[in-house]
Structures are given as structure tokens and as C-alpha cells.
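$ run holo --ligand "iron/sulfur cluster" --emit C-alpha cells
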Amino acid sequence: MLDHPPSTRASAARTPAAGGEPRRMPRWSTDDVAALFELPFSDLLFRAQQVHRAHHAPNAVQLSTLLSIKTGGCPEDCGYCPQAARHHTGVASGPVLDVGAVLDAARAAKGAGATRFCMGAAWRGPKDRDLEPVLDMVRGVKALGLETCCTLGMLRDGQAESLAAAGLDYYNHNLDTSPEFYGEIVTTRGQDDRLDTLARVREAGIRVCCGGIVGMGESRRARAALIAQLASLDPPPESVPINHLVQVEGTPLHAKLHGESAIDPLEFVRTIAVARVTMPASTVRLSAGRRELGEAVQALCFLAGANSVFYGDRLLTTGNPDVGADRALFAKLGIAPA
Ligand code: SF4
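-- output --
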């Protein structure tokens, strides 16, 4: 059993520890993470609970609501995505929403209990003229007293700084999957492009939301490599969404996997636990695919260290448990919104 993170980063993390010494962050190799995956299930969950309780309130969940502010017609080819223009999924391409409509949705999300409002646009990356209304949305949502998050694709010079100046708290940009498996899922942008955007976000002082998707036909080794890559970002993402693939008819992954789940539910729970152990201070979010998991598996995910969910009956274009079902589940588990 791995009792300690196996090595430390060669370079010091940015935050000095008490006493002025630079804090050294643990670095996880794929082998280290793969060893965690191999632990007996109960041992892994016990370990994850220990880490979770050392860093977070044990029975609290952070609630984020996600709104698609510009849907469909995306030029990218992400194999899981119903919004790619080249996939015939029936998702219509629409214009950018009005700022007023976005703020109405944000008010409703706040009223339902969300503390963070995430705005997603189906772009390869925003043009500068696209960014203007988004900046107004960020300012407006922030003024409502909500944390703000955007996921807009790849960012270019100056864009992260503009978002930071408008008050953006988090930028979401996922690595999706392991470097080795990535080319089977996306070909129109590389992981290096994603790392470049993540670096721009960090440089602008915006917190990073970065995770991936499991159940795409990847191996356990690929899941370990994804988690190792996330945990070795310096510093690790503050927010780590772990998505369970929702197979949408018309996407290449639906054609490949025929709508059959490609990951055992307990393997999904293991993935959450491994993310918790390797990224102790991060918020680990149960993201897409939660409705398909059912209550029992979600309960195991909370036990494994998940402490955030997407909240509201829709994600970008796919379904999510409704607010009433979530409240009932939290009450059964004695979990309170943070
Ligand atoms: S995941 Fe994002 S970038 Fe990829 S096709 Fe969908 S909307 Fe476009």
C-alpha cells in the first residue's frame, strides 16, 4: 500500500509553507496512481476518507450550476460531444444568449442554492468580439454574489487577463483523458494546446477547473495516467470535475460503444477516490453522468471524497438529476450544501 506520495516536485510550489520554506508538492507518476487503483476497494475508500477529512468538511457539498451560453455548431471534433457541428445529434446551433437571460438563470441558480455559476460556450476559442458579452455576464453574475466560472475553449493573448479583470473566479478547461488515449478522442486540438490555455489562466490569476471524462473505452492505466497528469499540475487544479461519459446518439463514441456503459460503477468510484487521494486540497466534482449513476453509486462517490456536484436539471445539453432529487439525496446522506 502506498502510505505517502512517492516523490516531491523538483521545483518548489508557489506558496511558501509556514516558516518561509517553499512547500514541496507531491508528484504522482502513472505507476504510483495505478498502484492506488489496485488497492482493495475498502482500503482505497478508507484512505480517501482519511485524506478527505484532513482537508475538507466531511459532509459538505459545493453546488455549481452550469448554463450553455452558446450552444452547438462547434468546429472541434471531440468524440463524446453532441455540440460538434460534424456530429449529427440534433443539437441545433444557437447564438450567444442575451446577458439578461444569463443573469435571470444565475438568479434562479442562486435561489435554488448554487454558489457558483458556470457559463459554457461551444467554441474552439472565443474571438475577441465574442468575449465582450461574456465579460458583461461575468460582471453581472459576480454582482449577484455568486462565484463565476467560464468554459469557452482555448484562450489567446490577453483574453484570460480580460476575464480576470471582469471578476472571473474559475476557468474550466479539461484534459479529457490520458495523453496516450487522447488522439482517439480529439484530433482538432492537442493536449499541449490545452496545457497552454491552462497556463494562461494561471498566469492571469484565475483558479483552474480541470478534469476529465471516464467511460470512453479507456483502460484503467489511461485513467491512472489522466489522474497523474492532473495531480502533477503545479499547483493541481483547485476544482477537478470527473465526468462519467453520457453517450449521445450521433457522436462517434456512441457509435463505438453502442450506448453500453464502458466503465463499471465501482471503477468510477475508484477513480473519484484516487483523485481525492492524489489531489487532497482540490474540490472533486461529480459532473456529467450523475443521473445514470443512481443514488447508491453517488453515495459511494461522496464517501470516496467527492465534494461538489453540478446542480440543476440540465448540464450543457444533457440531463442531470433535478434539484428535488438532489435535495432528497443530500438529506438521506446528511450532506449539507457548503
Ligand atoms: S467539447 Fe467543447 S470543444 Fe469539443 S466539440 Fe464539444 S463544444 Fe466543441
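-- notes --
The first strand starts at residue 7 and ends at 8.
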